[in-house]
Design goal:
The chain is of the alpha+beta class. The chain has ten helices and 28 strands. A hairpin with a 5-residue loop joins strand 9 and strand 10. The longest helix is centred in the first third of the chain and has 45 residues, at 3-47.
Length: 506
């Protein structure tokens, strides 16, 4: 047989072999899809049947939910802070849903889904309406959404289900399904093999500090409401730690929804959109504060960053939100100063929204400057295993960390930066401000913010003011991480009002 013919025959046989492999893979995928849909059908029957589940499309559910927040305590090892339980009312009206929270009897905020203009939130304090990205609202919805409601979604999208087989969890056998939700998350669904009811939803996310982390929602205490089995106890777990606990107070199926909940208040002002940190490149702006001193306003929405240039490198002040934000800051600085390396980055304090970007700087070989009490936290963040998203690793990055106690100085003249730990403060045990005496500027996170109007200072700001008076710092203006630049006069007027309120109340 001629060589060309032999080659053509080999190619044909190879193609047939590949086609056979592809068909086998397709058949396997279809088989796991059919098995998943069979398990879902059993679960629907156990829940009360497909017709009964449709009643949840017109329903009112009242819940009591408490949060245990992480990364906002006095120090990195503070554990979670428990928030008082809040009342939540969920109203479903066909394709629309309204999730409203209350402080006592007073509405706090509500999130509306299924609106033709997209998801939005209304904040009662300030009367503002903000557009909401669905991925940014996931954590809130997970703690107040019941498993029968998820069942409706799975029934609407059964082609996205695949069977993963059976497994033993907490001593009981479960059927495991894989599911891709509308936001693109890959979920694992666990159904009790005996009761057939859904008992757990899991996903894996990349946490800014912890790296890869399993997040779970667990459903229990099923009770019949009319024809439907409703779980009355929901918990959200982040890793192995309790992050939220929700109890169902009442359920009303059918009836007319409160249509006013789905309407935007006509007199509300437009607020800043609520988004997840952008995964792609984002254009940032740079403002020159003084020679060699710069600010990046809204490096992440609501978070300002400053940086100072020196002959031997650049100091970045603040590391907010996420590694992706840090990468955008690094790219912006390098574009403007291509011949200078970023040498240090300073998180003002460990709180997760202010330290979320430290891994992005460590990944770029930048040294983290911090107080001694935060060293172990920074090193744990560097060592965290990361396999999800754009910033992945097979080995930990080198934890370049330098620490100081109380006070540290970099540079001289107009570029002299004094890093001062003004803790302990009610906000955090260790929290650093940057003082630039040559231009009389103070850079501050959380202890003071300015939104254009002078308001009475809170307890954190009052404690900070006491510390400033003891330090006898001479400054003309404050650049806050949150908000706009303020004058010293505006700051001290805020302090005066806060102290007067304290005296009147005491």
């Amino acid at each position: 047989m001629p060589f060309a013919a032999r080659t053509a025959g080999s190619v044909l046989l190879g193609a047939l072999g590949l086609a056979g492999t592809a068909n086998a893979q397709l058949n396997s995928s279809m088989s796991t899809q059919r098995e998943a849909q069979r398990i879902l059908a059993f679960a629907v029957d156990a829940m009360g049947g497909a017709d009964a589940l449709q009643h949840l499309r017109q329903a009112r559910i009242e819940l009591s939910s408490r949060l245990l927040t992480e990364g906002q305590g006095a120090g990195p090892d503070s554990g979670r802070n428990e928030q008082p339980a809040s009342r939540v009312i969920v109203e479903y009206g066909g394709s629309r849903g309204a999730f409203q929270t209350f402080n006592g009897e007073n509405p706090n905020f509500r999130v509306v889904t299924g609106d033709s203009a997209g998801m939005w939130a209304h904040f009662s304090a300030g009367n503002t309406v903000s557009a909401v990205e669905p991925a940014a609202a996931v954590a809130f919805f997970e703690r107040v959404t019941l498993s029968p409601t998820y069942m409706l979604e799975w029934l609407d999208r059964p082609e996205m289900l695949r069977s993963l087989g059976t497994l033993t969890h907490e001593g009981r056998e479960h059927h495991a399904l894989a599911y891709a939700d509308p936001t693109g998350r890959q979920l694992t669904l666990l159904f009790d093999a005996v009761t057939k009811l859904p008992v757990r939803i899991e996903t894996v996310r990349q946490h800014a500090q912890h790296g890869d982390q399993v997040v779970s929602v667990v459903f229990s205490d099923y009770r019949p409401i009319e024809e439907i089995q409703i779980p009355h106890h929901l918990v959200r777990l982040e890793g192995d730690e309790l992050a939220a606990e929700t109890m169902v107070s009442s359920v009303r199926l059918g009836g007319e929804p409160d249509l006013a909940l789905f309407e935007r208040p006509a007199d509300a002002t437009e607020g800043q959109p609520i988004q997840v940190p952008p995964s792609g490149p984002r254009e940032l702006t740079v403002e020159e504060v003084a020679a060699g001193v710069y600010m990046i306003p809204n490096a992440s929405p609501g978070y300002n960053v400053m940086y100072v240039t020196y002959d031997d490198g650049i100091l970045v002040l603040e590391t907010p939100v996420s590694p992706q934000v840090s990468k955008a800051v690094v790219r912006t600085i390098r574009d403007r100063h291509p011949n200078l390396r970023i040498r240090w980055a300073l998180p003002t304090h460990y709180h997760f929204d202010h330290s979320g970007g430290i891994y992005g700087f460590l990944d770029e070989g930048v040294t983290i400057l911090t107080t001694e009490g935060n060293r172990a936290f920074m090193e744990r963040t560097a060592a965290a295993h990361r396999t999800i998203g754009r910033l992945t690793q097979t080995t930990p990055v080198t934890p370049r960390v330098e620490t100081f106690r109380s006070h540290h100085v970099i540079g001289e003249g107009t570029r002299r930066v004094e890093l001062i730990d003004v803790g302990p403060n009610p906000h955090a045990d260790e929290i650093v401000v940057a003082y630039l005496p040559g231009i009389k500027v103070l850079f501050v996170a959380d202890l003071y913010s300015f939104q254009g109007n002078v308001t009475a200072a809170n307890q954190n700001a009052l404690a900070f003011a006491d510390r400033l008076e003891a330090l006898n710092l001479d400054f003309d203006s404050i650049i806050p991480v949150h908000g706009q630049r303020a004058t010293a006069e505006q700051f001290w007027e805020s302090i005066r009002q806060g102290r007067e309120q304290n005296q009147a109340g005491g």
